[in-house]
Sequence to fold (290 residues):
Amino acid sequence: MKVLLSLFLFMAFITVGYAQSDSIKGTNLKADTTKIILGKKEIRIVESERGTDIKVRSKDDFANDELDNVATTAKRPARFKGHWRAIEVGLNNYLNKNHSMSLSGSDEFMSLNTARSINVNLNLFQKSIGIIGNQFGFVTGLGFEFYNYFFDNNNSITKDANGVIIPVPYDPIRLEKSKLSMTYLVVPLMFEFQFPGNVKDSERLRMSAGIVGGLKLRSHTKVVYYKDGNREKDKIWNDFNLNSMRYGFTARVGYKHFNVYSNYYPVSLFEKNKGPELYPISVGIAITFN
Fold:
């Protein structure tokens, strides 16, 4: 009778858990775990390809470990990720002081062939700073802008004796190509809002706006023409009184890996009183890298 009573008490304090197969965290190994409960103590026997591991701890400690594992392995909230890194291709032009692209009078020599005046932007580096969840934040970075202004008239440009930009006519030679090209280093600071939804960041409709600062790195003119049956090219590197630093406003709308952008620079293309008063604009599309 005493033996049966002792056995009954022993069974009351001992509960043998079933064997379960789990993966060992961080490996492809499978493990069988056997649980033995002795009152407030718990014994866990873990058998795997590595061997047998026996742990004796309180039930509360094991329970806390399991809660910690759930918390650490739970999916972290997604961070805000902006959409500046991209390759952009667009058309560029400029507005006169009357906010018109139609140039006349003393500025007519700067009229452009808009269809050929293309800008290419390489936005290489990006930093995103979240403000509200993963939907709203700042975006900054670093990139390069390459502008080509193709003149519509049969001329190029140069500086006169007073250092003022004037036209260089080529009549009676007909130019095949005449353009002014510039390269800028640019840094943006934009706000971006991504419309909420149960999709990846890149698949949300998004809108952004802000400012872009630019530093001119180089500039040149290029003309191509035929003379005595030979194709000639003249390229002249000069600053052409172009403002070396400028800022502009940018606005963008995007979905998935595509953006539509527009830029406007309220800083004149040329230095004050050193050339026509013209304000650059551009519009285009982009393929983002996010």
